[in-house]
Amino acid sequence: MASDLVASWKAEIIRRWAQAGDTKNLLKPYSIGKSKSALQQFAKDGRSMITGDSNLSTAVLGSHTAQYQILRANSRGIQARITIENSMTMSSFAHVVTGYGTRADKFVQSFDHDGIVATEIVTPRPMMTSHHMTITFRVTVPN
Fold first, then answer.
1. How many Cα atoms within 13 Å fall on the side-chain side of residue 134?
2. CA angle, corner 61, sides to 45 and 90, nearest 5?
3. Max CA separation in the chain (angstroms)
């Protein structure tokens, strides 16, 4: 709730509501691969994990999509629900070594969903498939 990312979402929600009357929409997706080099991102995320600073949740969550829905709006502000969608795969943890969108990254990704590691030959239940998570919370944005 105290991360820089949520602060930017709050500003985006209030701006969209004030300018266009939007009550429900997608928020700007967060992609680690587009923000910095893999090594810089790893250093920033590691620092957040060690210090527990306000960006810890973003460091742990990684790349994701988000949307909002305004639940209440009046002269004092807005109450909105934010829903975050995130899938974690084996390659999610390999980006520090492989980078993003490289040949090595694509090779590791080939094992995530239906590759050799995830087949039923290895285990009755695939172990390396992606894990999807949904996080929903409410924020209040004062006018």
1. 5
2. 95
3. 60
